[in-house]
């Protein structure tokens, strides 16, 4: 399973766009990139998944360059409620659902 | 849908006692995962099941830990005997039949275990 590297923490202010970048230099051809969000005292929650280029849903966008060695989670106009830990995971999708969570990025959104 | 249900939400026990954590996955999901989260080690996958069969238990820390899934709607994680270093939040998660490009796992609220 590919190892991921992401910043330990980030700070932002309400209304700003936040971009969290994850490095995964050893990503394999069959690997997908998945992001989870975890609030204090809750289990992680799936945010978004992608394979290449750009994926957007109602919560976030995921940008993946052509070489797929990194990815960027973009949160538009964050609010205080977006304060959480964000995990980047890389692995084969579908039937083999073993996900390895790293340390994640602790995002703090300030008023 | 009620989501993944875990019980108890909090458990305080003394070293040496047996602890049983319970999980009810989302109906129709055929994968079930047990994770442990601590400040020091983060979120660790302990074991996961597919169609009630254990697939990978390489994350189970030692023989004191065991997990079962007697049917599609129930799983247990047992620690016997418990030790203070087992104190953690234990999460159960489930996912639906593997679609081609999906890694979405649905996590329960967790059980906070404290072993004194």
Key words describing this protein structure:
heterodimer; A: 111 residues; mainly beta; 5-stranded mixed β-sheet; 0% helix; globular; B: 116 residues; 7-stranded mixed β-sheet; 4-stranded antiparallel β-sheet; 53% strand
In short:
Chain A is mostly beta strands and 111 residues long. Chain A has strands at residues 9-13, 18-23, 31-38, 45-50, 53-56, 61-64, 70-75, 84-92, 105-110.
Describe this structure as you would to a colleague.
The complex is a heterodimer of chains A (111) and B (116). With 111 residues, chain A is an all-beta fold. In chain A, a hairpin with a 4-residue loop joins β5 and β6. In chain A, the strands form 2 sheets. Chain A has a 5-stranded mixed sheet, with no helix packed on it. Chain A has a 4-stranded antiparallel sheet with strand order 2-7-6-5, with no helix packed on it. Chain A contains no helices and 9 strands. Chain A is globular, with a radius of gyration of 13 Å. The relative contact order of chain A is 0.34. Chain B has 116 residues and is an all-beta fold. Chain B starts with a strand and ends with a strand. Chain B has strands spanning 5-7, 10-13, 19-24, 31-38, 42-50, 53-56, 65-71, 74-79, 88-95, 106-107, 111-115. In chain B, strands 2, 4, 5, 6, 9, 10 and 11 form a 7-stranded mixed sheet that branches. Chain B is 0% helix and 53% strand. Chain B contains no helices and 11 strands. At the A-B interface, β4 and β8 of A face β4, β5, β9 and β10 of B.
């Amino acid at each position: 399973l590919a190892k991921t590297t992401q910043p330990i923490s980030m700070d932002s202010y309400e209304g700003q766009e936040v971009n969290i970048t994850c490095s995964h230099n050893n990503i394999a051809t069959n690997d997908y990139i998945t992001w989870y969000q975890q609030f204090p005292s809750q289990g992680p929650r799936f945010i978004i998944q992608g394979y290449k280029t750009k994926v957007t849903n109602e919560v976030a966008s995921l940008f993946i360059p052509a070489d797929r060695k990194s990815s960027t989670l973009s949160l538009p106009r964050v609010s205080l409620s977006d304060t959480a830990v964000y995990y980047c995971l890389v692995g084969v999708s579908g039937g083999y659902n073993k996900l390895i969570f790293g340390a994640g990025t602790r995002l703090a959104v300030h008023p | 849908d009620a989501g993944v249900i875990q019980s108890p939400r909090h458990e305080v026990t003394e070293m040496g006692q047996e602890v049983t954590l319970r999980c009810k996955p989302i109906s129709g999901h055929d994968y079930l995962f047990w994770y442990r989260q601590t400040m020091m080690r983060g979120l660790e996958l302990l074991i996961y099941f597919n169609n009630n069969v254990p697939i990978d238990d390489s994350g189970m820390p030692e023989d004191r830990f065991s997990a079962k899934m007697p049917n599609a709607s129930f799983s247990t994680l047992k620690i016997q005997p418990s030790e203070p270093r087992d104190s953690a939040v234990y999460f159960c998660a489930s996912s639906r039949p593997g679609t081609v490009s999906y890694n979405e796992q649905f996590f329960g609220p967790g059980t906070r275990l404290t072993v004194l």
